[in-house]
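Standup notes
- DV: blocked on the single-chain target, sequence here:
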Amino acid sequence: MPRPYQPSLLRLLHGLTAALLPLAWLSGLVVYSRYDGRWGRLPVALPGDWIDLHGSIGVALWPVALLFGLYALSIGRWRLRQLGNALPLLALGLAVGSGKAMQEDWLRQGQLHHLAYHLHLLAWVLLALAVPLHLLALGRRGGVALAGSMLSLSLRSNDQPRDWWPQIQAVWRRP
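- DV (later): unblocked, structure below
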């Protein structure tokens, strides 16, 4: 059986998202615990300005999520038929979009009633459910071999960074 191969642009965008998302999720947990905590708090208060840290991670995640979403809707759109791929991407889009609509002073001032904040909390919960679902689906579809193909650094001759733009353009030229 041939070893699976994932396109290099997918691996890059997926890897950047996979690196930033846990940082955003965990820093969001600390922010929630400190400023909201309606449904529970962390057992220890962590020092520091977590809202600014969380926002900085969100600023770094925003362009990556945008590019990943554009990739998924073009080259990777056939993969979105699988709930294990579509739900994490939708939750990521909701998290980034609602985060951009928020003002960081809302939580500092105890303003927990804004729609954007509630959508951000919903996205946080959806991501907590969607990422394990994504990993379970990965295990069902290809297991270790598929996961290894996402972590591989090897490139095919027609999958170099210079080939990314023509690959994207080819998708839009198809009938």
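- Follow-up: The radius of gyration is 18 Å.
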